[in-house]
Write a structure and sequence with these properties.
89 residues; 3-stranded antiparallel β-sheet
């Protein structure tokens, strides 16, 4: 019950904060995806990478946001997708 109330409060704060913008652009993930070898080394590494890679999309979901994912090629790395958060959450 309290968690739902707290989430509604966060959604309201996010809506107020983001209302001054038409859109917000942020990376889909905080880093380039790891190799299979990096995540299959141990269960702890898999869990660490999994939580890291879901951080930004999870934030959008938490505030009931609507986002579009677009590829954004990088000259030095593999493509790093971007999230475009549109409208008010």
């Amino acid at each position: 019950m309290q968690l739902g109330l707290d989430r509604r409060a966060v959604i309201g704060e996010a809506a107020e904060l983001l209302s001054q913008y038409d859109a917000v652009l942020l990376p889909t993930t905080p880093s380039v995806a790891p190799t299979i070898e990096e995540v299959s080394a141990s269960g702890d590494e898999y869990a660490r990478w999994n939580l890291r890679m879901l951080r930004n999309p999870g934030l959008i979901n938490m505030i009931d946001g609507c986002a579009v994912r677009r590829p954004a090629p990088s000259p030095r790395h593999s493509p790093h997708p971007l999230l475009l958060l549109t409208g008010n959450p």
